[in-house]
Amino acid sequence: QVQLVQSGGGLVQAGDSLRLSCAASGRTFTNYIVGWFRQAPGKEREFVTRITWNTGTTYYADSVKGRFTISKDNAENTVYLQMNSLKPEDTAVYYCAAEYISGGSSYNDQTNYRWWGRGTQVTVSS
Question: What is the Cα–Cα distance from 54 to 121, expressed in whole angstroms?
């Protein structure tokens, strides 16, 4: 069982920055992949980015590449999502998710993650 505790989010203007955090409660992220997904009103939840804890390997959706950065803090056992140059279309509830690494799975696919944070609202005004 992995409990994910999210923090951050809020209301900002276009062009501003925000940082979201996702911490594992009671365990480490060793051997896990941690992903960020988001769901805008009336839309399906979509992949944003992910990081492989052991290697630090990252992957981004095209829509956020160059603006968002996923990172990890080993000491804090926390994954961060730094969001810069925010746009109104980034408005969504953002979720972090974690899954134990196994071969052959696509970790851009939300169905391959078992553990989820509660989500945090990010609203970007124009």
Answer: 28
